[in-house]
Amino acid sequence: MGAGVALYGFGVAEAQQRENGGESTFTVLVALAVNFGIGVMKAFAGVVTGSAALLAEAAHSVADTFTEGLLLTALRRSGRPADRRHPFGYGKERYFWSLLAAVSIFVSGALFAFIEGFETLAGEDTEQTDAWVGYLVLGLAFAMELVSWTQAVRQVRKDAREDERSFTQYLKVSDDPTVKTVFLEDTAALIGLIIAFAGVGLHDLTGSAVWDGVASLLIGVLLVVVAYVLGRSNKALLIGRQADVRLVREAHATLLAQPEVEAVADLLTMLTGTDQVLLCAKVDFVDTLSAAELERACVRIDAELRAGISELDEIFLEPVPRSDPELRARVLARYGDLARRFGTD
To answer: What positions does the domain Cation efflux protein transmembrane occupy (predicted)?
Structure first.
């Protein structure tokens, strides 16, 4: 095209109201109710038995309850429509509050578990009392956690099936951190209960509190791992992760299929929220197009992209010459040959 470069941005005049994720909200509410009830029971049992593992598990449930509160905040605030101060909407608030949830797991759960474990190992060997209370509470807690875990698994399977991915693949690439957080929390909770049961049982059998302390430390390690996985995932989303590669390739193919397009020089995408994608394309249009024809083509292409890819929230099309050396250098520096990037390899 000509020497000048014009920018054409075609976003929606008013951002569409996004659903807060009715099923996601239900999943979080189930986890919140379950963890609150379990936390009270574990704290009671920990005080009665004097078990460090049970007290660590009580802290685990408190952390999970606080986490669910943060996730509910994420769901509510991320659904607000775009405005003057935030023209791309508030979708990333879900990632911010989910990141805080990961931090809360570490601060209020893992650290307390480590403190309880080290104090038990360093202190005098104490006799465990009323161990049956601990067994009863741990059994009830396991059954209750299964309710929340089953709901989380059911939703992940449903979402993975709709996305045509396996269970593990969906967890890896999902842009909805709320359900992923609940699933990992509940999985860690079930594993933590088994560890706590082993600690209480071995303490009861051997009379040595060392097993109780070790169990508390293992629960702390478990929570650190979960917090790290969730924190890393949400950090990537907050920084601005590329959209699903299948979406990117579909957008690339749609652009190339247009009669007015000769080549796609660059294609950038970024997740701006759950099921919300910002797309910027640098396109080499046919040189014979007039300014009016170019404008009409941009409007039509924008409409076709939105019709074919529902996740697209904002679309920017920029006419550029594909032979521009500076542009080509930037593209190659970022991810190599564009044709290879959208190929089948």
So the answer is: 28-238
